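Hey everyone, long-time lurker, first post.

I ran two proteins through the pipeline my lab uses and got sequence/structure pairs for each. Pasting them in order. The first:
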Amino acid sequence: MADFVTLKWEGASPAEEHKFDLHEGRLDWTVVKEYFQADTVTTVEFGAPALFNNGENMGYTCRTFPGGSTIKVEVVKKASDQSVSAPAQGDKYEKLKRRVYDMKPPSTAGAKVGEFMAKEQMNEAQGPLLLNCRPPAASSPVPVQLLVPAFNQITTAATAAWPVMGQEDLPDVECTDFALYFCQAMSASFKDEDHRQDVVMTLLQAFLGSHLNYRKANRGERLPDICVSTDKAQLMHVQVKDEMGSSGDAMLQGQLYYADYIVTPQAYGLLATSLCPVLLLEVVGPLLRISGHAYSAGAVVCQPLTPMFNLLDLHKAHPEQVLVLARTLSALRSTLHELSASYASEEVPVSDTLPCWGHSPTPMPHHLQLRLLQQQASSVDMMGTSKLVYEVHGAVLPGGSERQSYIIKYTQRYGAAVHRAWAAQNFAPQLLGVELLPGGWYAVSMECLGFKDGWWPLTALLVDPAGMEVPDAIRLLGVPLRGTKLQLLHKRVREVLDAAHNVPIPDAPVAAGNSVGGVHGDMRDPNILVQLPRIPGDGQHSGNADSVPAEVQISSLP
């Protein structure tokens, strides 16, 4: 007998239907109402008495409706839904909602990972349901730590190895004692998974504080094992497995419970001012891992923030492991408090003209979201997906009054001194600023060398424009460049690179009395800009059959 039923509402336009798993032959009726976002749902064949909405008999049995049945229902929608408008990013949210509603419950999907991967993650028609790096193509263009800066303190704490820990990095006595006690408790053997969940929840309540809400899922409910929340939002989901390999993939199940949460009315109402960040804490036997979830540009982003920690009592043999765990748990508590405070604050900047936060169609770091609002920018374009580079348009920069465009790049290392030295010699765009962000990221802002000023990437001069929309300025050069013109261009590029490499870098280390120059770490054609020569008489930048670009700059430094 099938372990699910399908509820179909023909009164919707188009008809709406969802599959629900039966747990021991029963259906959680609160989940049904949540999925239909309804006040009441009744069956057409038997009416309301066939469904028990309250008490111990909530749901129905296979004796009422056999597994595999399609059951027609009548739905009375929540009144508040009528006033909710569609997301600003178009129908991505609605498509996600339909996919999540039609998906098997996370407990089932997480127990059949191969089936879920084939159906949802390698879905060529709709794309992956989750951006969780499985398969590798299902990756978020923006790391979750840049989407939610509060997550960085967990990653920083988890990656601080024993040898580099200073006195100020050591966890306090309370966190160290809790980490030791947690390890001792999780190293034990439990009667079943339910008992381990009870212990985890008791320990978390004592450590995280009574100002948060804690809810343990009842058997059969489509909810994470433990949910930590405030009255406004969910903050952390906890998935507990008695041992490795028992009852499914805890990480995948947690990711799917987050997808469930994102399509609830509560989460939807938060997307105007938030990416709805939620932490995932996995406790799998004597192992622990923390992940971060966020909703960005119509996609569910899920990434681990820590490696898998041992929850064994190793304070004598490997004290460094316990100390790093204690630091990480301290950061977890701090992050939850920060998220809670952010939801309590009413001072979240928003824009009337630029879609931001959960409604933005462009995936972008939290830092860039704030910057666009502060600078009253008109739009932003992501320049490819392999690197975090954006072109901001119509921004009012500090100290200025005119709107202008600029480039901003996010990276974990940058040769700012080299860039400044090269820019001073007109070998690179002017560097506008370098900001150090949480987690060791840098936001690098630089001058935008645009097409209107005659600047083009070298790659535009090396490809055949047949069938492509190529400006007349490029076509006049006779692209792709070949023969003498190509040789002359390469000669000019080499001259600029040689000259740039000989520019002394201030404060750079000096070896054997020789000045040290800078080196570009990613010198490829896309990172070389060339300027077309001006046409005499009209001052416009263009090309002709006899001209070769003479000005060359290097677009950015890794």
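...and the second, right after it:
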Amino acid sequence: MHSLVKDSILNYSLSDTRWVWDVEAIKSTSIDKTVLDLLTRKLSQLPDNIVDALKVLSCLGPKVDDTLMKYLYTSPESRNEFIACLDLAVGENILEKSGDSAYSFVHDMLKQSAYAVMSEEEKGEKHFWIGMQLIANASTDTDEFNAITFSVVDQINAANTYGVTEEALHMKFAELNLKAGKISIDVSDFQSALSYMKAGVSLLNGWQDGEYYDMSLQLYESAALVSYLNTDIGLMQQYLEILFENAKCFEDRLHGYLVMIQSMLSSEKQGEAMRHIISILEELGESFSIDVNPKDAYAEVVSTKSLLCGLSVEDVINGKRMADKRMRWTLKFLTLLCHIFYPASKSAQLCMAACRVVKLSIEHGFCSDSAEGLQLYSFGVWNFQNDVEECLKWVCAGKRLVESLGAKHMIPKVTMNVHIASYWNEPLQSRIESLKESHHELLMVGDLENLTVNAVHFGRRSLLCGRNLLTAEKECAALLHGMYQIRKMNALLPMISNHLSILKLIGSHYDSEQQLNEPLFHLLGNSEINSQDGLLKHALSKRLGGLAQQCYFDRLLLAFWSKNYGEAAHYAE
């Protein structure tokens, strides 16, 4: 209001004895800009030492306490002087104080104003000074430094954006960005992780050999991974290309190969992914043939079961751990093969790969990938022997093994498999809410492959377990849109079949005020797939066995519920 009066937009008329104003001028006034200008003028009237303190504070986070202040101002005199300035700003209603030593601006606009009074060069210098103070005064290998890692890296990176840096320290800064990126991955903040990895790669200024080779390798591996997790496939490919070109040996390319294959599986390039995996396995000393008949798979299940009969669950959980790195990579790529065979309903190949994982684990020791091998072997036991007890025993053992190893990133995956296996001994509806929780947990750890499996099973159970169809329809449509957003196209096809079945079951017998989603074929980006028949035709032409099975199953279900038992029997065959 004072600002409007000062600018003669709002005036008191002595002749009319009332306030008068220019409506058009007020409408054209940016309130945010007016407030910002006003606050900037207020700051300019404060003593220089208080303004300098506020500038430092504006470069930091929303709240600053003595954890950072003790590193910024190491002498008691300088720290007390800084705190005295902040206390004066509290008296001016610019800052607020919580507890004994935590300060924050009373409003974001005040923080913005304190930041805006600095030139671009001064902002860069201020950020750089803060970052270097934190690096200089905190021991880099301590828990205390770990707690302020993000503050350090954010300040150095902010300074760099303003052109203020120290080239001689770029390798140190790149290392800090790598550290911050890895911490972000651990807490599933993949967007921040990508930002840190990109900054780290930029600071490298190209691939570095010699003493910085390992750091270059880790930065490009991690940058490719988080690019994939953020669905930026083009950027992922750029990082992988540089990694593959500069890696010194086959082993140094394995992390890159893993990301590349995961990306292929997300893009429905299962055939290409399988060829790469088999080639990598051969390089690792493990041959695998996809030409498997059910008889061979049955024999493999029987021989694996015989080996496991000599072990208790406790023997596995507390037994020898796998130390051979190449063997661990072998298990990882064998389980990736299982991810191809499972949705394609290639039970024989799935059993051969899973049993191989179990046998190698028994011989060389158990690791986190052994757990998934045990669980997938369990599905083979059910498929070929209908042995529910043995199946559930090793599915649950896989989850316990992961927990005992502390492999947190795998817990959502193995927990999901336990929920899926419950199909054989629990009512269908018993795990619906658990599968919903698994969806969130898999998303949090960036496990996009198993997110697909979970979404398909959730959709199928929603259809079968007697839930309210309107609720099932909304949840299925929401999952479809979620899979589309993260570009999991291989999940969309079976889920669309599910969604169509739900819509057909609802038919015209629903509250007309209840809004339903139209069939979501447009998400596929394929104009030829515009009906349930088109979906089945696509599955058969592309030899997508899992999808074709899903389509036939959904048709069987609709025919049975419509009491067309002859048609249902036809689809069952």
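Reply from user beta_strand_b:
Welcome! Quick read of the second one: The first helix runs from residue 2 to 6. The beta strands are 10-13, 18-21, 95-98, 102-105.
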